[in-house]
Amino acid sequence: MHKVVGIGLIALLVGYVLWIATAGTSIAPEETVVVNSNSARNSTEEKSLEIVTLLGFDAIPSIEAPRFVEQSVADDTYDPDELVLGVEINGDARAYSVPLLSRHEIVNDVVGGKPIAVTW
Known about the structure:
Structural class: alpha+beta
Number of helices: 3
Largest sheet: 2 strands, antiparallel
Number of strands: 6
Distance between the termini: 55 Å
Strand content: 25-35%
Radius of gyration: 24 Å
Order of helices and strands: HEEHEEHEE
Low-confidence stretches: none
């Protein structure tokens, strides 16, 4: 009996790991888009473009609990020319690094007591 239960638990664990590994990674079938050319020299030409999906659904993780540093630490850490998105609500100010947002695309945060979503 214990052996059967042990094998069942292992099978359940393997199934769960496989489900986690593949969840949200379905790739949509290829799509084709036809674009009509508007150029005067060849207005009847059509171009066929293929849309390729590189990342599956929810493949880029959002930042759910952002951590911030003091301005003096940020001045030493970040390049002076680094682009940031800034927001201030009710006297609470934040700066979000654009290079970091380029890897995550969204930050869910609370600024000045208001929930916000910073997107890039």
